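Standup notes, structure subgroup. Blocker cleared on the fe (ii) ion input:
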Amino acid sequence: MRDLFADDEHALPRRENITAGAVLMRGVALGVEDELLAALAAVAQDAPFRHMTTPGGVMSVAMTNCGAGGWVSDRSGYRYDSTDPETGKPWPDMPQVFRRLAIEAAADGGYDTFVPDACLINRYLPGARLSLHQDRNERDMACPIVSVSLGLPASFQFGGPKRIDPIRKYLLRHGDVAVWGGPSRLCYHGISTLKAGDHPKIGPMRINLTFRRAL
Ligand code: SIN
Ligand code: FE2
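Run returned:
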């Protein structure tokens, strides 16, 4: 029998290999969703979501961070910073429920020594997108990226280490976790324009947590 994650009519495999080193595990965050959402609200209270500017312009995705390092961007480029430039304070601590989920998901994905020190939190309203990019500002490329999706479904584009490599698309839904590292660590990825909708737990948006070893 096929291993299906069938909590609704749109059954998808519970676990799908994306490419060597990259795996998609569906529904694994559902067991702690209420704790995740409560912790997220507390983080966003201390470090509000904001639209950062990149050398290319203002991002459609709103972002905040928790953990020792936060991903920040301005007109001159990207970096990790221990201070939130908006508040002048350190980023909020990474909630235990975040850290534990990231460690467990990384281990399930084959990376059993991963401990995150940074969590970038992305908020997509309908119409927002994240163009194809590599995550390459982290110090230790031996550590994977762990990505947790909440709220509205999104189409995740995943390519190869070169921008021109072919792209495959994966539907990321509430509770899904993607892990990529090792040979896939520098693969290009992005999120297609978010479609309108209203998620019963999150409302009309998608939230993504990406855990990194950044500092
Ligand atoms: C990211 O690439 O940093 C986030 C991807 C996502 O929102 O799923
Ligand atoms: Fe990324």
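Discussed briefly. The chain has a mean pLDDT of 95.
Next: hand off to the docking folks.
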